[in-house]
Amino acid sequence: MPLTGVKNIILVLSGKGGVGKSSVTLQLALALSLQGKSVGILDIDLTGPSMPRLVGREDAKITQTPDGWLPVLVHEAEPPRETTDDEHEDREAQGQGQGQTGRGSLRCMSLGFLLRDRGDAVIWRGPKKTAMIRQFLTDVYWGETDYLLVDTPPGTSDEHIALAEQLLTVATTTRGSPSSTTGLPFLAGAVLVTTPQAIATSDVRKEINFCVKTRIPALGVIENMSGYTCPCCGEVTNLFSSGGGQIMAQETGVPFLGSVPVDVKFGELVEGKMVVDDEDSEDENGNNEHTQLQGGEQVDSRPLVERYQDCWSLPRFEAFAKTLLSKIEGTETSS
Prior knowledge:
alpha/beta; single chain; 32% helix; 10 helices; 335 residues; Rossmann fold
């Protein structure tokens, strides 16, 4: 059965290119993983697959098994870690919960992993794109996956039509537990990404119309690149405009999830340029977590999900993740 083991599917859409759909998809996936959910990312931006670079696995290759293609592992799941008394006191002082949630696994599938060279251009007509998307939705073995996030290209073209048609065949839009009802994954809906500028929000309005016509629920709007976060203090400055995504969400009746300023730390993270000082090069057990580079600099070599926890944008995406979990699973989550 297609998508065996996948429980919920979330699309990440935008009618405009360059608004940060892939970075939003990755950060949502990391935030859901930190909530203890096993997560998969399916990158169907066939002509511009950026997810292999974002997750730092450009050299990874897809393995073929009797069950289908195996997605690339970004990080393993980890059980909850016991906290010390000092850490418990720190969490209470910061107003955080007493319990510690384990980390879910994260896996990724992208056409970029199937190319012989990462610089190869994908020059395909519509029918071949459609066939590739259908194969991604039927021939990838995800295993037990709580959430599958689908990173899409801009617009409402062949890829989107093929995706919607196929998902409405292999998934259900009826809320409930897949294992106890139809056995199909639940197509939860779409998260729409925009920037504050009117030229972007006008295109996203068309994407909302696409959701209405294809009967895919709109879970909410994220206004990306809304201001700039200082890498030193975290203060947000509105360099251009802000609030356009929220106004569009109100006018179209779609929930507004929140805004995300430009985070330099996250940019350095996905570019592999997070350099650390010598005094920060050892973990709590005295182990060196970084690789020595020329000139005496050291680069952080921890897993992506651990490095992401140092980024200013994490609390915002944690809030988005909790809101989506509340909407989809119908559970009350604490902020």
